[in-house]
Amino acid sequence: MQHVIAQLKKNSNIFIAAHVHPDGDAVGSLLGLGLALEQIKKKVVLYIESAIPAVYQFLPSIHRIQRTTGDIARFDAAVILDCSDLHRIGEAAEAVSGIPMIINIDHHTTNTRFGKFQIIDPEASSTAEIVYRVIKEMNIPIDTGIAYALYTGIMADTGSFRFSNTTPAAFEISYEMVKYGADPHKVAHYVYETISLNRIKLLTMLFDSIEVSEDGKLSIMTLTQNMLAATGTEVEDVNGLINYAKRIEKVKLAVLLYERKARNGRRPGSEFHVSLRSDGTVNAAALAASFGGGGHHNAAGFDIKATLPELKSIIFDISRNI
């Protein structure tokens, strides 16, 4: 912690990034740290390669998050948030690796310990919780914008305080953020109670795609580029929808197969991102790691090159060991 804080105080131009296809923790921790460092006169660029899901557009200063890096050479330091590996930030990873000081702040058990300095706490409810500790240790005042960001990050990663990573600290910090101005009803309204018509259409198509293994322990949900095009949605609109497949009776592991866009010579339907959600009886992180991915015990993912029929065959084979 003290090494990281020393670097944040020492460097003036700081690049802060979170992972592609961001969730609430990625967005919240990014905004929270960025707004805090600006209070001590740091020049910051907040970066996420992918579009920000519509449910988080209500957050103060959300417009500050950029999808381009600009001139990487101007940065003294980079802080990478909620990423088990530097490549999780997307196509900018190689360029960002050239920034002299890289700081890695995360709570994934599968973190590769990249960067010069790290704060990695798998016991933390979220990366937003760790960012809160950094801000408090630096004695930076928490304003309403920071409060909304950190509250949203913790709430989202704990599934509105329903998941097993919900700790006393998660409640204590959230309580403090409410005192600083975060409105729990407002956050819940936007994150859980607001949905576009296009997203409902996409959800209908995803429901139709669900397949279940013979023993009922594994469910597969498939998302193709054609489905996104037909509903006018982005992959970010799928955030959280895999949990419907996990709620099916007897299912121990839910899997979402996302077809990547064809680019850089790739054939359509030849590369997928696989998201895993466990009921707690299956170690999703270990399973993802066996395919070169990572994550948490109950939520993890990996990328794979395969056709859809090949991939489904691989996934259904997994069900025999569940």
Q: Compute the gyration radius: what is it?
A: 19 Å
Structural class: alpha/beta
Strand residue content? 15-25%
**Percent helix range:** 25-40%
Q: H/E element string? A: HEHEEEHEEHHHHHEEHHEEHEEH
Straight-line distance between termini: 39 Å
Extended strand count:
12
List the helices and strands and how they pair.
Elements: H1 2-10, E1 13-18, H2 24-39, E2 43-47, E3 65-66, E4 77-81, H3 93-96, E5 101-106, E6 117-120, H4 127-137, H5 144-157, H6 168-179, H7 184-192, H8 197-209, E7 211-212, E8 218-223, H9 225-231, H10 242-246, E9 253-259, E10 271-278, H11 284-289, E11 294-295, E12 299-305, H12 308-318
Parallel strand pairs: 1-2, 1-4, 2-3, 4-5, 5-6, 8-9
Antiparallel strand pairs: 7-8, 9-10, 10-12, 11-12
Helix pairs in contact: 2-4, 2-5, 4-5, 5-6, 8-9
Describe the overall structure:
With 322 residues, the chain is an alpha/beta fold. Helix content is 36%, strand content 19%. The chain has twelve helices and twelve strands. The strands form two sheets. A six-stranded parallel beta sheet has the order 3-2-1-4-5-6, with helices on one face. α2 packs parallel to α4 and α4 packs antiparallel against α5. The longest helix has 16 residues. It is globular, with a radius of gyration of 19 Å. The chain starts with a helix and ends with a helix. The model has no long low-confidence stretch (mean pLDDT 94).
